[in-house]
């Protein structure tokens, strides 16, 4: 076994077929209570007896599947302190004011434009202006890593537009350096943007939500906040902090502020095809693309919008493989290292070029870089 995973040309066969599609199909067939309910009935109609093993086994399977979905449903109901008979009221998109940090590119930009089409008042906080023609989008220049700027801009937003009802903490930056190559400025920028900015926006906008006893807070973490990776020490640590920030915030809202109506959603996506990680090098062999597909921004945006509409606190883990990430630390070390090697994560950043969030002293991106040329072609 070599130290680095092998790479090969991508196969078009696997471009639209991946484990997520398979799981989705199975969830509506072999693992669906509605579908499995008819299996024992089918055998009974064929003349089998109730005591026949095929009927008993299929019946037990149906009961097991039903219990699984029941406990999943009840867990969600309990977490959101919902009603057994009635769901949340209709979500009025036209009455929402959604604040999106880092909304001028990538996921944030697509989310802002998509919500604007739904007649939502969208407020984008970013150091760079968003390129859009949607009149429902208001841009405020703000470095969300600085409390003074967030405090001043938040007061301006509340005065000019109104109290935000949804906060999407999406801003992020990645350095892509080995720990000894990170400068103090690199580390500070990573944690200021990826972690501390969440605290500043919460301090600015959460009081209004608590007063209204309504709102929804989205925390954009990453699967890299659940598992570690070489050349990502600062990024992984900053995203890991958000996982417990979201959990602690949930308990504070429920127990101390007595505002369970304010929803919290944690998002832990895998690799997303945005400029932020456009110069990473992932394995391209078919099995990897099948098991660990890269996400298109539209997939993440659709999940966020669906979560807004459902009005439930939840954790969005995508694609499917990310749901196993929390269990990685408890695996035997040889299995943990095997999966790490298969993912190619420890070598994905070797040719990384920082495209987004460059500081003035870092200068412009080298447009002659082969990796940068590739990024421009892809995005």
Characterization of this structure:
It is a single chain. The radius of gyration is 23 Å and the shape is globular. It is 44% helix and 10% strand. It is of the alpha/beta class. The chain has helices at 19-27, 33-45, 53-79, 106-117, 147-160, 184-212, 233-256, 286-291, 297-310, 333-343, 370-378; strands spanning 97-101, 121-126, 137-141, 166-169, 215-220, 262-269, 314-318. Helix 2 runs antiparallel to helix 3, helix 4 (106-117) packs across helix 9 (297-310) and helix 6 packs parallel to helix 7 (233-256). The chain has a seven-stranded parallel sheet with strand order 3-2-1-4-5-6-7, sandwiched between helices. The model is unreliable at 1-14 and 369-379 (pLDDT under 50).
Poorly predicted regions are 1-14, 369-379
Mean pLDDT across every amino acid position? 89
> CATH topology of the largest domain, anyone?
Rossmann fold
Number of strands: 7
How many helices in DSSP terms? 11
Report the span from N to C terminus.
34 Å
Secondary-structure arrangement, i.e. CATH architecture of the largest domain:
3-Layer(aba) Sandwich
**DSSP strand (E) fraction?**
5-15%
Helix content: 40-55%
Family: Belongs to the short-chain dehydrogenases/reductases (SDR) family.
Function: Catalyzes the reduction of all-trans-retinal to all-trans-retinol in the presence of NADPH.
Protein name: Short-chain dehydrogenase/reductase 3
InterPro entries: NAD(P)-bd_dom_sf, Sc_DH/Rdtase_CS, SDR_fam
